[in-house]
Specification:
9 helices, mainly alpha, two-stranded antiparallel ribbon, globular, two-stranded antiparallel sheet
Length: 208
C-alpha cells in the first residue's frame, strides 16, 4: 500500500470534555460489577493482579510432585496435547525445569534488537545529550529486558551474562571504549542484578 493511500486508515474519535466525565461516571458505577463477574484467568486491569502473578505460578509449580508421576500426555476436550519442555506464556518462556536460561537469552536478544533499531536515530545522534540517551534506555530498553524478571531464577552464569551485556550496552551509548579505562563505578551505571532483586522483593512482599 502506498503512503498516500488512506483507504485503509481509520480516524481517531476525540471525546468532548462532558463525554469524558460521563464515561468516567459510567465506568466507576459498573466497575465493581465487572470485577465480580470477571473470569479469574483475566488479570490485566484488575486491582491486585498482574500477568507476572500467573507467570510466577507456572514457574514454581512442579507437576511431577503435584501429580506424583511424570507427565506423559495431556488430554483436553477429547484431544491429545503435545507435551513440551518449554512454551511461551504471556510473552514469557516457561521451562519445565524451572530455570530461566531460555527466557534470559530471549530477553537479551529482544533488547539487542531494540538497541540496534535505535542506533542511527538515537545513539549516534550528536544532537541528543547523554542524559536524554540514558532516559531512552530507562523507558524504552529496560522494560524490554526486565519483563517478568521478578520470576527469574538466576544462576551466577546468568547474572554475569546480564551484567556484561548491560555494561557493554551502556558504554556503547555513552561513547566509552576499552582504551578509556573507565570503571563501572566511574560511569555511574548501576547493576542490573540489583534492579532485578529489588523487583523480586517487591513482588514477594505483594504476594505475602
Amino acid at each position: 500500500m502506498k503512503q498516500w493511500d488512506c483507504s485503509n486508515h481509520q480516524g481517531i474519535t476525540l471525546l468532548s470534555i462532558p463525554g469524558k466525565f460521563l464515561a468516567h461516571i459510567l465506568l466507576r458505577r459498573i466497575r465493581d460489577h465487572l470485577l465480580r463477574h470477571k473470569r479469574p484467568e483475566k488479570s490485566r486491569f484488575t486491582p491486585g493482579k498482574s500477568t507476572i502473578d500467573h507467570i510466577l505460578a507456572l514457574r514454581v509449580i512442579d507437576f511431577e510432585d503435584l501429580l506424583g508421576e511424570p507427565v506423559q500426555s495431556v488430554r483436553a476436550r477429547g484431544e491429545d496435547l503435545e507435551v513440551t519442555e518449554s512454551f511461551t506464556y504471556l510473552d514469557s518462556v516457561v521451562h519445565n525445569s524451572g530455570l530461566s536460561d531460555q527466557e534470559v537469552t530471549r530477553q537479551i536478544g529482544l533488547k539487542a534488537g531494540v538497541m540496534n533499531s535505535l542506533n542511527k536515530s538515537s545513539w549516534r545522534c550528536r544532537h541528543l545529550c547523554r542524559g536524554t540517551k540514558l532516559r531512552l534506555v530507562k523507558y524504552l530498553i529496560m522494560p524490554v529486558l526486565l519483563y517478568s524478571s521478578e520470576t527469574w531464577t538466576l544462576s551466577c552464569a546468568l547474572e554475569f551474562r546480564l551484567d556484561a551485556f548491560c555494561n557493554r550496552s551502556w558504554r556503547r551509548i555513552m561513547g566509552y571504549c576499552l582504551q578509556d579505562h573507565v570503571s563501572n563505578l566511574e560511569t555511574g551505571i548501576g547493576s542490573v542484578i540489583c534492579t532485578i532483586c529489588d523487583r523480586q522483593l517487591r513482588l514477594y512482599s505483594h504476594l505475602s
